[in-house]
Give the backbone structure.
Amino acid sequence: MRLRTLRGDTLIEVMLSISVFAVVALLAINMMNDGINTAQRTLETAMARNEIDAQAEALRFIHQSYVAERQKTSSESGFKQLWETIISRANKPSTLEDDENDLKNGGLTAFDINNMDSCNVAYSTNQNGHFNKYRSFILNTRLVLPDANKKSPKYLDTPYSELLNNEIIIEKNRLAEASLYPRLIFKKNQNATIDSDDINLNQGETVANLFNLVSSAEGIWIDVAGNNEANPKRSDYFDFYIRTCWQSAGTRVPSTLTTVVRLYNPEVLQ
């Protein structure tokens, strides 16, 4: 008679137990994913901020070096030549944020980096696209230190003037959407040579692993605006908008960071 009173769990009880376990497991996995995504976003933001800070310091360094060598001619001062090339990209101040004229002229949709559904809005390739319209660029931070012989950097056997528009200022053809986070992708310079006085290698030996040329700049660029609408290059100051945009982990809208660096024009402000 006792055996007849013993019974196992019913099918409903088993299904209920499995359901409760599944809900708890899903909640735990979701919390783990949220934690991983948060950590990933924090790391990406830190890396993006490092790239922004590097660009800001390079701009300040170029400006200060240009001011120190302002009395020299462009052929005598690599920094003056570099500064003049950078400010030649200056736009009117009203063109850097939401521009209603873009909509009226049927061009690029009004650009607001803080309200974009996708980063590819900034990478429009048509003639009214952002990089064409605002002459955006980025600096190769490894090539902004010319020596007394106008070479940049010291170990490159290439004249500084040849590098100016080719490798120091990176233009739209190498500005690309971020595959991970905002960063500069460097490549080997097979023709680089070293100085045996500074590095314990034979004079003229090729350094195949010297990564100092930019293959692409992903998710980061600079726009520059002057306060003189009639002639931006004769502005009292220049605002350099260092912008980043990338698709961060676990988000539907892109992540963005922007820093503004204001540098004054000593040619106008005496």
